[in-house]
Amino acid sequence: MPSSVRTALPASSPPPEAVAPLIRALAVLRALTAAGGRAAVSDLVHATGLARATVDRVLSTLAALGHVRAEGRDAVLAPGLLELGNAYLAATGLPDRLGPLADRLADALDESVSLAVPDGDGVRFVHQAIRRRAMSLAFRIGDLLPAERGAPGALFAADWGAAQWRRWRARRAADPADAGFPAVPQRGRDEAAEAGARRIAADFTARVAAARETGWSADDQLIEPGLIAVAVPVRAPAGEVVCAVSVVSHTSRHAALALPDAVLPRLRGTVAAMEDALGAPPAPAVGDADRPADGHLAAKRQLGPGFVASVARGLAVLTAFGPGREELTLAAVAGATGLPRATARRALITLTHLGYTESGDGRFRPTPKVLDLGFARLSGLTLPELARPHLAALAERVGDSASLAVLTTDGGDTVRYVAGVPGGRILSVTLPPGTRVPAHATAPGRVLLAGLSAAERAARLGGATAAGRAGLPALLDRVRTEGHALVDDELEAGLRSLAVPVHDRAGRVLAAVGVAGHAAGRPPRATASAVLPALRATAAAIEDEVRVAGRYLPLPVP
Ligand code: PHB
């Protein structure tokens, strides 16, 4: 397990009101994140210094909340954990309000554009519009940079006071190799690397002074060779810097010194539009669909023995924040979570002690450190990865193979299998991911076609005049009404396939989940009544996670 200075608990001891189980649960989540999102339970015991029984109890509580999953002897971060980071991101309003403007700038320049916020003496990414070419690394939402490496840090440090500079120097002294920043390419330990690190740190104060003077900052390969960037701060109406917008490129496209001239005019135009957007009245608080504390993910779980309620309550406090709920009083947190005031207060004291919330004027707000809880690790998540554990559970439950399929992007009558898990039977049917089959003739294909508008459907089916397709429109209408498709002799004689739709956050059909097996003399209706409930439950479980994970992540289907 990589050592990380940031997984250590704060040096000061917790206040007496702090909730010890919540502190332990957050330590387990940080250790699991530091391990790359997957760790043997024994490694978590070792990394946290907690007793085995404690780690087991924490993990089963986090599993019940959908934040981790058990896979054999390993614990794995689960997509439901993203709801904590989502709450922070939604509370800032930055990706919601400024993200579309950043995306437009990326399109206009054909370069990557990111939004980052100050986080202590670091810089945390909160939005990415990536046009990155093969040669450079891409940061993810939630990744943390040291302030002295990269363009935005010099802008943020322009406002630092003496205490923040002290803190920065102490961190540099304690962690000269940037081991506490796992997203940043690690420096070698040789002399040249150390000299490079010292030079970057020594130059930082000059770069900060220049940023203060000019209102922009450049990164000339401070992170890795070839990677260059220019950043400009975005100010709230009251004048304080809330984030920085960076345009990121590569020396193969622009000479480092030429990048500012090439992009600053447009970048400044975007920042002006962003500052206008921040001055506009906030969007009305978005519906409670994004509020698992109000009963979507969390309340649906079976809360088994060993469930530590104080952990669930403490984490629910984080999800009380959201759009239009950027900062909340204790009473508002209690009201939003349904927790007694004393319970909410102790949770907030604990979270503030650990740096996940901050308080002032009797109000609390989440900090970017919330994204340290697995967000960056999970933010590369693909739809097939999200679906796979659910398919495995389905295949195990029904004994037949389970798969996820999408329509191909070429606009034709074709479905592509993107994830599959074989059933337990000897004659199990598996289609390897990547397999393409005609959509109109297969159960997943029919479910996907049924989810399209009439025009899209007609375009995919190319007019559908062939004799075999004559009854297709009526058949697809029925699939749409019934919410499932069943096809006998699909792809081979005796093979029966049953599929249901998986919807995205907006209610569009995103994918189909299906089960395929041999009909084995069973009438179709018997198969449907035996398998449909499990299939629908699987689709619903995938949709729950898609709703959370798809809030700020693209969930690609590679
Ligand atoms: C990025 O968004 O990947 C990025 C931003 C600023 C930098 C380097 C990279 O200085």
Task: Explain what this protein looks like in three dimensions.
- Strand 4 (112-119) and strand 5 form a beta hairpin.
- With 558 residues, the chain is an alpha+beta fold.
- Residues 1-9 and 287-300 have low confidence and may be disordered.
- The relative contact order is 0.11.
- Helix 15 (383-398) packs antiparallel against helix 19 (524-549) and helix 16 packs across helix 18.
- The protein is globular and about 80 Å long.
- The two termini are 29 Å apart.
- The chain folds into 3 domains: 3-86 and 286-376, Arc Repressor Mutant, subunit A (Orthogonal Bundle); 94-279, Beta-Lactamase; 383-549, GAF domain (Beta-Lactamase, 2-Layer Sandwich), CATH 3.30.450.
- The longest helix has 26 residues, at 524-549.
- The chain is built from 19 helices and 18 strands.
- It has helices spanning 20-34, 41-48, 52-64, 82-92, 94-109, 152-157, 162-174, 191-214, 259-279, 297-300, 309-318, 330-337, 341-354, 375-378, 383-398, 443-450, 454-461, 472-482, 524-549, and strands at 38-40, 68-71, 74-77, 112-119, 122-129, 144-146, 217-220, 227-235, 241-250, 328-329, 357-360, 363-366, 401-407, 414-421, 436-438, 485-488, 495-503, 509-518.
- The strands form 4 sheets. The chain has a 6-stranded antiparallel β-sheet. The chain has a 6-stranded antiparallel β-sheet with strand order 15-14-13-18-17-16. A 3-stranded antiparallel β-sheet has the order 1-3-2.
- It is 42% helix and 19% strand.
- P-hydroxybenzoic acid binds next to strand 8 and strand 9.
